[in-house]
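hey so i finally got around to running the thing on that chain from the lab meeting. sorry it took forever, my laptop kept dying and i had to restart like 3 times. anyway pasting the input first so we r on the same page abt which one it is
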Amino acid sequence: MKKLSVLPAALAAAMLLTACANPFAPKAEEPPAPTVVEKPAFTDETYPRVDGSTATIPLSEGLVRELMGKDATAAHEFVHHTTTPSAYQNLFDGNCDMILVTPPSSEEEQQMKDSGKEYEVEMVVKDAFVFLVNSENTVEDISVEQLQKIYKGEITNWKELGGEDAEIVAFQRPDNMGSQTLMYKLLVPQDEIADAPTELRPAGMGDLVDAVSSYDSGVNSIGYSVYYYANGMYTSPQSKLISVDGVYPTPETIADGSYPLVDGYYAVFEKSQPEDSAVRQLLAWLTSDEGQKMAADEGYVPLHELTK
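ok and heres what got predicted. didnt touch it at all, straight out
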């Protein structure tokens, strides 16, 4: 039986993407530790227009509760995230002021360049790129190299990984979806990944969990997601997460970087936002110690160790 809920998981290091020739080249320095900042207070009229991914809905709801004083029901009704690719497009079209998403895909980076505008991309919470298999699969651990070979089409049978003699059915996601962008960024570049038919590219993250859980009632499928979603927002007893390079994804292994496939969620907005804008006030509070504690309470992993 599937459950739809929110459990603790993620927040992380930051990135500022500015432009001369490249409007989103990350700064090299380590971001500062969370600080204490004045907590802004917004109304329905002054709160910035925020869009984002499915996995950052609880983060947005937490911000609305804290900064607008809404209760949980009102915050849920106020927040509207359209998924990662739509959120980026809404930002480019001027339909929102800020988005909370996974990093931009190569196509979205090109749109940034072509727009003639400069964008800032700052990490606000850590998360991890995780893999799930059918719960009946005997494989519990897989290496980064083996994952790369699976998704390049070089490993095709579970027996090559110590499992049953069964063909590996490797699910992917459509291009520009957040988890697909992470696949290209962290594991296999887009020009090296094996082709996958449409039926192996479910559009929704929940659809992928369902597919891995029930594909032909077998144990031969594998798919991927982000930790926050797959561990807390949408789970199934018919699927399980597996460790990578001997490290199982947990808030602790994501925070300390021992899990090998760590990234995060980012605030993306136009660099032209004034220093006193609602967007920058919201971001300053979110990355402060108080904001990071709120995010941790929502289940995300803080960017830094929090003060007690």
